[in-house]
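All the exercises in this workshop are built on plain-text protein records. A record pairs a protein's sequence with a compact description of its fold. Read left to right, the backbone structure tokens trace the chain's path through space. Once this layout is familiar, the rest of the handout is easier to follow. Here is such a record, shown just as it appears in the course material:
>
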Amino acid sequence: AAPRFGLDRLRTLGAERVVLLGGGTSVGFASWAEHARLAIRNFGADGLIGMGLGAASASDTYSLAQQRQRWEAWRTLQRLHIAGVRGPLTQDEVSAHLMPVDISGDPALLYPLVRHVPRPTRAAPRIGVSLGSDPHSRFDVATVAAAVDEHARDIGATEVVAFALSTADQAAARHLSDRLTTASVVHAYTDVAATMAAIGSCDLVVSERLHGAVAAVSLGIATVPLSYASKCDDFWSSVTGRAAPVTVGHSADDLVDAMRAAEQERAGIAERVRELQDRLQRIRGELLAWKSGTRSTTRP
């Protein structure tokens, strides 16, 4: 890839260059600090801007067993500026290890503001469910299926969409679909627009995948996150002020209760989402002003 970096550096010769790290659970992890360092070096960038970044909580034994944290590597990055973080758990970690930061929310909350997502009217309610695969769901598929079937009967839902939000999730989605007694279809991921439209066709979304929950609340859909790591609680706290209601080891009754409560909580969550979207839009506006040449990172 070295020739491509060379061409980019030649093309932007004399211009101010920055690396934008736009979201994701990245800040604090050693691997991502190295990715950022190499990007700054290879592009000859003047610094790095983070927008809506997430960090694993110090108490998140699951995530920290997957990746090693190395905060000192982040402290050595040149001209690091974090314009906003995903939620309060990340705010605590970054403020303790790097710098004071504000909560901006997850950048994916902006999607419906920059691209129209259709919300079709349906004769009967539709439930969407996303289970992850890393390499397996951390949730019991039979328990989730039983709860979804019970709630579908209660609200008169005639169809469940089993979402595979990545290629790796397809087996989990098929497994869930096979366990449901409610009629179901599997939505295999193709692209963002098609998947957002499919999520937008649901009246309720239950999601183990973090960005399934982010997408649903961005569209104003009643949502139940299945929390398997601190990043799920970080996001849910950003829109509700509390941790996700359903965690690993839950019962079918726990999930049914959360689904019943989701519609009542939707309006309050939607109001908070709008506040976060306003914050993200301000950051986006500042980045676009910089890109157009009307704002510099070295001058107010």
